[in-house]
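Why does residue order matter? Because the sequence determines the fold. Keep that principle in mind as you read this record.
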Amino acid sequence: MRCEDNLLLEQSRMIKQKAKTLLDKLELKRVLERYGEVEIIGSYALDVMWDRDIDIIVRCEESFESAKSALVDLITSRLVQKYEFGDFEKFPREKRPKAHIVNLQTQFEGEKWEIEIWFFPIELFEEQKAKCKGLKERLKPFKLDILKQKQERVHQGATKHEKSSMEIYEDVMR
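Structure:
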C-alpha cells in the first residue's frame, strides 16, 4: 500500500475517533434514548469518515412530536452552538426521507462539526438501519476509493448536498 493511502486511512481513523470523543462528551445517545431506539449510521458506522458530520437515527412512534421535544431538550441543555429543525414530512424534498430532523452544529477541537438526528417512524427506522448494515460489508473492499472520492469532493469545494456520500458509495461500487 502506498504511503499516501496509509495517510488517508489514518486521517479517516482520526476523524472517527474525534467523532466518538465528541459523542461521548455530548452524551447525545443518553439524551436521545428518551425518544426511542438510537442508532448511529452513515460514514461513522460504515467506517469511512472524512467529513466532520455524524448521522443518527431515532426510532419513535410520532416523529414530529419526538423531534420537536428533543429539539427543546437539546436547546435547553445548551450542548452545542447551533440548532436547526427540518420537517420533510410536510415539506418533502428529493433525496430526503419523509421524516423530521434536528441538525446540530458546533465547534470541537477547532473544527466545525455537524450532527444530523433523524426521527423516523418504526418502518423507516428499520429500513435505514438495515440499509446501513448491508452497506457496511459491501463497502469494505472499496474503503480507500471512497475516502479518495470524499477527499476530492472537499478539494473541489463541493458540498455533501451536491454529491452525497451515498452517491459516492454507489459510484465506487459500480
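The two ends are 23 Å apart (CA to CA).
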